[in-house]
Amino acid sequence: MSGAQPAPARSLAGVVIAVDGPAAAGKGTLARRLAESLGLSYLDTGLLYRATGRRLLDEGADPADPARAEAAARALTPEDLRRPDLRGPAADRAASAVAAIPAVRAALLDWQRDFGRTHGAVLDGRDIGTVVFPEAPVKLFVTASDEERARRRWLELRGRGVEADPAQVLAELRARDAQDASRATAPMKPAGDALLLDTTALDAEAAFAAAWALVRERLG
Question: Which residues are annotated as a binding site?
């Protein structure tokens, strides 16, 4: 990895770093790089919801059906998280729908906490700092403008050979933001003590450098 930095001097055993924010803000890339640089495990918690939604789509079920969604969440296996079809508009919509169901979030909460507490970890999602690990010593909330996030998502889709209309990508991204921010259970919002990072004008290297500085400052 270019630009990798040595870990802070303090012991990181059991330390959890929460990285939250909306889709395509760059939080996943940052979280993975932070985990690698700090020698911590990494978990993209969004994959849990995407895999749950994908199970329901495979069954022809409605992702908004609470009973079916909870059953799908409790049946998840590690193999589900490695599926190649967990990205894209359909998976995005299904993930947002199941994430709004309290029983689904409860089913996945212990799984996430067990993962983070085993040895320490960097977790990215939408409610890591507010619900999953409110006691995390480092919480980042990563964002970017709607237009920049939609551009990134469109480029990602095009890179995977998926044809997409940029205007539709922007509309779907805003719709998901609204659903994630307005849900009654664990809405997407910065924790009160989260460090905010706007990546609108930052490339991957600059975003990582900014995140690394914030993490070092908070860890001491």
Answer: 21-29
* Strand-pair category, 121-125 with 41-44: parallel
Q: Which residues are annotated as a binding site for ATP?
A: 21-29
- Give the global pTM: 0.85
Asked if residue 9 has pLDDT above 80, the reply is no
Domains delineated in the chain: 16-219 (3.40.50.300)
Statement: residue 13 has pLDDT above 90: no
Distance CA 73, CA 55 (A): 9
Helix axes 89-99, 166-182, angle to 10 degrees: 10
pLDDT at 8 over 80: no
Helical segments of the chain, H only: 27-38, 46-59, 66-74, 89-99, 102-119, 146-159, 166-182, 204-219
- Token pair, residue 80, equals 């589900």
Which tens digits make up the pLDDT trace of 132-174?
Answer: 999 999 999 999 999 999 999 999 999 988 889 999 999 999 9
